[in-house]
Amino acid sequence: MDIFAKFENRLGPIGDYAEKSPGYFAFPKLEGEIGNRMKFMGKEKIIWSLNNYLGLANHPEVRKADAEAAAQYGLASPMGARMMSGNSDIHQKLEKELAAFIGKEDAMLFNYGYQGMVSAIDALCGRHDVVVYDAESHACIIDGLRLIPSHRYVYKHNDIADCDKQLARATEMVKKTGGGILVITEGVFGMSGNQGKIREIAVLREKYEFRLFVDDAHGFGTMGKTGAGIGDEQDCIDDIDIYFSTFAKSMASIGGFLAADKKILTYLRYNMRSQIYAKSLPMAFVAGNLKRLELLKSKPELREKLWHNVRRLQAGFRERGFDLGTTNTPVTPVFMKGGLYDAVQLTFDMRENYNIFCSVIVYPVIPKGQIELRIIPTAAHTDQDIDETLAAFDAVREKLDKKLYPQEMPNVMA
Known about the structure:
Number of strands: 14
CATH superfamily of the largest domain: Type I PLP-dependent aspartate aminotransferase-like (Major domain)
Distance between the termini: 41 Å
Structural class: alpha/beta
Radius of gyration: 22 Å
Largest sheet: 7 strands, mixed
Number of helices: 13
CATH class of the largest domain: Alpha Beta
Strand content: 15-25%
Number of domains: 2
CATH architecture of the largest domain: 3-Layer(aba) Sandwich
CATH topology of the largest domain: Aspartate Aminotransferase, domain 2
């Protein structure tokens, strides 16, 4: 059989939607300057689907730093992987500043957050080891686990009793294998908006021996008194053995990093295949990320504006009776009941008639019969954006409740 033959009839659980209005619900094109309002298919929309939490994407100091760095270094420098010929003083400066900000001995840059997480798990875990991880872990964690030969036990989302149970199983396993245990969770879960229960997990060290690896992609820059993430928010940075985040969200850039003890990162620098065999993060991005980190630390008003918008938006939804789950972070999921056609018709109505652009999530990502509209507030949004959005949600919910949406795909090209 031709290995490509299977593509003719099935594209996978998400790809099966590929022919249902491509370019509209999947792979849409947002145009214009990144911000609270952009153009979609030629019309201005209020945009709630970008992780530009602090509004840094078009901050004038960031744009200036990016332009100057690109002019000075270009995008080619440095050539080669960090280990061979791609190291520089500014790479090391950014690592030093990140480590100090997070509260760890050392930090290590990655070209991409996703790639970094996958490769770190691969380097840390061998066939004798056991990984215990949260059921709602991000795809980069799941993909990292798929690469390794380690035993794996999953615990119910944020369920400490079940985490305890899986750690007991893991402890029995490593007695046989002679390996160690790594617990992986998130600081802020990007779909639900829940904080990971880092401190509660750490208490389980009184019963079990393990190391704790936290993916804080949505927490870095948004959580804590200083914006240093979930360790700052929960006062638990010493409980986190390896802290991970990406620059793709609060920093509105590209790349990622780990922060940990020097001995851990020395090992990873010499054993992470994605860093040994991949070109170094270009100097222009590193210099730009230094400026972003400076603003993140020196302009608390950006985080204060973000949280003003978060509180106003979430309070408005809850006052109107919308289900936001148990979010306690900027991530704002709005749950409704309905099928696929309800979801696409509702989203189409929101975009075309109310000029609200947000991401819609349906089965298989969430259970059948449920619709999630995920809202990402940023420091760039205004009170007017929030008021218009709340009014739009009121209107589309009424239509959904009255079953006014046709049970067919909308004509997005009309």
